[in-house]
Known about the structure:
By secondary structure, the protein is of the alpha/beta class. The protein is 39% helix and 29% strand. The protein is built from four helices and four strands, in the order βαβαβαβα.
Amino acid sequence: MKNIAVVILNYNTFDDTVICVDSIKKFTKRVPYKIFIVDNASPDKSGDQLSAKYEDDSDVVVLKSQLNKGFSGGNNVGIRAALKEGYEYVYLLNSDIILENDAFAQM
Length: 107
């Protein structure tokens, strides 16, 4: 079983989401992880921007919802994708979270 999936819900927050992803990549070193960014039908096209930015990054998957499913519905898109890939733990982060240490290994 794979270890950690991180689900980040994006809605018009391209810059915040990139900073969040960067902080995960900077500090998460001791546990295997994959980041699932769920774009919740952002009208500003930030979902397309995120898809382009991370298209060659095997640690990041961008899932684009055609409908805004709200906070819980958007997170459920990411949770389902993570469980389908066999992840054991799923962490939900708001796009404005910035890690300051290897929090996932500590948990």
